[in-house]
Amino acid sequence: MTAARSRRTSSRDDRLERGIPEATIARLPVYLRALTALSERSVTTASSEELASAAGVNSAKLRKDLSYLGSYGTRGVGYDVDYLRYQIAREIGLTQDWPVVIVGIGNLGHALAGYSGFVSRGFRVVALLDVDPARVGEEVAGLPIRSYDQLEEVVAAHRVAIGVIATPASAAQDVCDRLVAAGVTSVLNFAPSVLSVPAGVDVRKVDLSIEMQILAYHEQRKLLAADEALAAQFAGSNVESA
Amino acid sequence: MTAARSRRTSSRDDRLERGIPEATIARLPVYLRALTALSERSVTTASSEELASAAGVNSAKLRKDLSYLGSYGTRGVGYDVDYLRYQIAREIGLTQDWPVVIVGIGNLGHALAGYSGFVSRGFRVVALLDVDPARVGEEVAGLPIRSYDQLEEVVAAHRVAIGVIATPASAAQDVCDRLVAAGVTSVLNFAPSVLSVPAGVDVRKVDLSIEMQILAYHEQRKLLAADEALAAQFAGSNVESA
DNA sequence: TCGATTTTGTTCTCGCGTTCACAAACTCAT
DNA sequence: ATGAGTTTGTGAACGCGAGAACAAAATCGA
Question: CB count, 10 Å around CB of B28?
Answer without folding.
Answer: 24
